[in-house]
Each structure stands twice: as C-alpha cells, then as structure tokens.
Amino acid sequence: MQFTDLDSYYTYLEEDENFSILDFNTTKYLKILGDGSSDPEFKKLCSYEQFFCDFSIKKGEHIPQYQMGDYKYPTLELFDDDFVYLKKRAEETINPKYKSRYNHILWLSPQKHYNYAKQAIESYMTLLENSNFAADDNLLNNSFRTYFENLFLLSQSINYKSAETIDYFTTLLAGSKISEFCKYAIMRFIVENIKKNDAVLFEKFFDYANSQLEIAEDRLLESFLKLLIIISQKLKKSPAIFHEKLGDWHISQLKKEDRQGFVAHHFYLNALEEYRKANHKEKIEQTSVMLEQAKKTIDLKKVTFEIKDEEILEKLNQYWKLTYDIIKRIVTEKSSKDIYEYLIVEDFLPKPNSDEDKPKSGLADLVTTMTFDINKNVNKNKSGMINHYHLHISNFTFRQISCVFLEGIKEEKITFQSLIDYLKNYTWYGSDFTYVDNNDEKQGFDWIELLAPSLQVFFNQIEADIKTTTNHNQGYILAIDSLVLKFEGLLREFSRAIEAQTIDFKADATEERISFDKLLDNDKLTNVIPANDIAFFKYLFTSEGMNLRNNIAHCFYKTENYSSATMLLLIVALLRLGNYRLNTQLDK
Description:
This protein is mainly alpha-helical. The chain contains 25 helices and 10 strands. The termini are far apart.
C-alpha cells in the first residue's frame, strides 16, 4: 500500500472491504505521504487522517491508543480546525466502515449533533448487515461485537432505530453468522446496558442461553451460566439453580486434570462462592472439606535475593554504621527513659501505603495474583503486588528496633523493671482506671498489672536467648498472646477516653463492639495519633499486615510463628500508644 496523494487514500477507503476493526498500516503510509510534502496545509490534512485512523471507539467511548500519565494519543483536541475537515469527510465518505467512524467522532466532539449520531447508526447497521466472515474467525467476531456495541449505545442514547438494532441481533441467534461466544457477549452487553428492562427480550435471551447448557463447550458453558444468573435477576427469578451449576462447573475443572496447589485452590474457592449463593448446604460442606485438603498442596516458598551492586552495598553499609553508632551512643550515654522515648519519637517507621505509591505495571494486566493469609486462605483485601511497607519493616525498622533492645539489654538499661517503671510513670497506662461501685466492689482496670506478666515472660526469655545465642520460639507464646489481646483492650480504653465510638447498635437494638479496624479509622483517633503510628498498628494487628489480633484470637499461629521479633514490634507499638496523658484534654 502506497499513497501518491490524498485522493488515492480516499479511494483506498472507499474500496476497503476488510471488516476488521484493527488497522496497523494506514497511519504509517499517511505519515510517509505527509513527510514527503513541503505544503503545510497538505501536511495538516495528512495528520488529521492519521489521527482519524488511530482513533478507536469501543463501547461508545474513545479509547486512546497510547496513554502515559496525562499524555494521551490521539485526542479530539488534535483536530484544531473546529472539525471542519472531519465534517467534510463525513459527508463525502460512502463506505459504511469509515462513515460510521467519522460521524461517531463528531458525535463525541464538542460539535455533537443528533444528525452525526443518526448517520453513524445507519452506517453501523449497513456495515453489520453486509458483513460476511467465517463464524470461527475470532478476530472478525470481535470486530462485529465492537461495531454492534457502538451501534447499540448510540441507538439507545438518541432513541433512533433502537428496536431495529435489537431485532437485527435477535435474528442472528438462530443462524451461524457469528460465533456462540459472540452471541453470549452481545446478549450480556444488551442486558447490562439497555435503558429500560424488556421482559420479552430477556425471556428470549434466557431461553436461548438455557438451551445451550447441554451443548455448549467448556468455557462457553461457564459464560452462559453467568448470563443466566444476570437475566434471572433481571426477571426476578431465582438464580440458585444456575449458581449451583456454575459451582459444579468449577468442580468439574478439577476432575479433568490432576490440578493441585494454587489452581485447585482457585476452583474450590469459586465453587464454594457459587454454592453459598445457591444456599446448597450439602455442597458447601463438601467443598469446604475439599478446600481444606487442597491447602496441603499449596507450597508458599520464600524467595530471597542478594544485592550484588557494590555501590548500593557500600551505601547500605554506611547507613547501618551511622545508625548503629547513633544507637550505641544513645544507649551508652542516655537513661532508660531517653531510650524508650527514642523508640517513640524516632522516625524509623515507613510511611503509610497509598494508591499513588503502589507500583503500576502493564504486567499486572497480564497475570492473576493471589495473596494468602497464614492459613493459606485467599486474602481479597490485598493485591498480589510487592508490599513496600512490609519490606521496609522487615529490612529497616526491625533491625533498628532490635539493635536498640540488644544494646539496651546488654547495658542493663532496658529491663523488665525499667520498662514497667516507664509505663507506670510516663504513659497513660499508669493512670488509675479503677473505681468503687455501689456495692463497694472495685471495678475497672489496673493496666500495669495486666501488662506486667507478658513483659516479665518476654524479658526472661530474651535474656536467656541472648546468653545462649538461640531463638526459643515456644518461650514467646505466652508473652505475645497476652500482649496482643491486651493491646486491643488498651486501644478501646484510649478510644473511650477521647470519646471515640467503641460500640455499634444493630438494627435489632442489640450492641456489638466495633472492630479493631474501625477503631483505628475513627476520625477522633486519627486526629490525635500520627498517621505513621496508625499505619504501624494496622500492619501489626489487621489484615493489612501481620493480622496478629485475628491470628492470635483464633489460634492460627503455630509455634514457629512466634519469635522475639514480633514481641519487639509489639513493645514499640505499646510505647507509642501510651505516649499520652489522659486528662480533660489529650496532650501529646
């Protein structure tokens, strides 16, 4: 293909019988044509046609070919002649493939007018009616679907030939002009995007989709079942039978091959979800048992990596030497009180994760990721991408904290007694929360008494581990279990003190305690406690991180999950939450 002038290009458009919506070459030859001329006006017209050829419309909207940040290509703004040229081309062009596009672009532009939509609708209809391709040609079936979706949305938006558009498609259900998947996809699109529910049309789609269940191929069967669920809901019918069949379909995928590990987990989870929606208790129980068995085949391997870049290693070593020297000086020269305050005020916590901070990669669109909790359950609240917060805690925050404690314990400045004294004298935990009730009985909490056993066990164990250079996991079980649960109590006590809500009232007038997560999201709490500390608490106690509260309360932790590292992080959290005075006003 080579254009000698714009007339040869126009002729090519009129004679083009290729039904495909994709065009990878025309723009290239238009650029060659424009670059070969010294006439600025001619170059501009060639550019307009390049923009036109690259302009993609899907589901009634313009989809840029390229997008990086705020930059998009092509855009309507590139047609800087007030769309005069496009209007002229829309009138002159006869080929419905291009006449529909010229007019559709004008409809999307600031020059929007009813006649442009009308012309586009008529051209789309002509294009589809005259199309002829093999029913197993997936590329051209996809083009048919794209053209039809544009036609349908336009006809709905201006209420022009909307009935004719739907009638045309329904005639295709009995024939073989398009593939069964294309029929499914268009039916679903119509059901989900039609402006007014059409019970007669939906019944027709329902009957067709239902008739395919016995003959549809594997993946197509899944698609038709999903469609039947949607249509059932539109028709106010129970979709339970189709949820059950969809669950059966997921189970059948496991029986076809010896699928284990992540793949088996995926199908069992999907099946379980469908059986729940169908309220099929027997299959829910059966699938739950099979899911638990399947977890044994999931191998969650740890992947380690070694930094070999000498320049990076040198900078890291310099950083750690400087950090160690600062900590050593503080521990040697300062008092126990100063050391605990260093753990409170030092900026060694990572900043909270945000959507802007999350890495964005095209790879994420090509793969499916699954995030598992400690029980190998899929965590739907987490993405499968790298957790930078966790990496920072593991590689930087914990190393600094452990260095402070090790040096402090060696210098006998961090001890059970010094920590208890600090908590009693310099945190709100030492306040008297007890009172005598009407029966002369003491009520309320002495938080120091409640915290002391956990801390006593911890210091006994870590001092023994330091002497023997071991990490006796079992020795930290009581300390961690106790302190995790006490931290929740402290957080609720703190919330009550600042008049933050701690109890919800349900519709039946019963009370329930607000969840740990909601406590940390309360505005009164976040207005007092720094964002970095809130993020740290969430990392330790909620599903955003270690989920200690849930794992401890439900006995999900095994012996090997306990360590001095977890206890050190908990003590820092304890110090940071306690760094307040609970008077009439809360001062930090």
